Amino acid sequence: MRPLGWGPKGSATERIHLKTFVAMSYQLVVKTITEVDQTKDRLPSQSVRKYLHAHMNSFNLDAALVEDYINMYELARFGPDQLTESDYDEFTTVFYKLLERYVWHCFLYLCADAHCPSL
Asked: Rounded to the nearest 5 degrees, what angle is found at the Cα of 25, between the Cα atoms of 22 and 26?
């Protein structure tokens, strides 16, 4: 039996420390946002919560989805407990929805701004 906090042996998450993955996920969110607008970089003193709240309207992100992401991120980052695989699955569902909606917003933004290639 694997220790709590790691994916099950033989699974795709076997080598992933679940809590660390969630706690580091904000880096991908910031990188994704700054790929489109470099002026929206996160300040070192800025919490992930404040950063996302400051930019969610700019990117037309669903407030409830952002709040779900932030709450799960903060629980993993600052909470004392390890994550279960179920916690990880719930988090990744929210995380990927957040990224997917952001990417679609950017695609539509770029198309509206005439930078969209002909399809």
From this structure: 125
